Amino acid sequence: MVFPQDSSGLYSSSSSIMGVHDDTHKANLKAYGGMNMDCVNEAFMFKYVDKDLWVSPDDEISQLQMVVESEKLLNNEKLVLVLDLDKTLLHTTKRSKYLKTPEELLQPKFKDSLFRVQPWAMMTKLRPFVHTFLKEASTMFELHICTMGKRDYASKMVEFLDPEKVYFKSRVITREDLVDSEEKSLDLVPRHKRTAIIVDDNQHVWKHDQSNLILVKKYLYFNPKSATSIASFSALNTDEDETTGVLPTILEKLKLIHRLFFNPKSKGGLVHTDVRSILAHLRVLQGCKLIFKGIFPPSLKPENSCLWLMAEELGAICSMDDVLTPFTHVVTWAATTEESQQAELDKSILVHPRWLHACYDACKRYPEKDFQVELKN
Ligand SMILES: [Mg+2]
Question: Cross-referenced Gene3D superfamilies, in alphabetical order (predicted)?
Answer without folding.
Answer: BRCT domain (3.40.50.10190), HAD superfamily/HAD-like (3.40.50.1000)
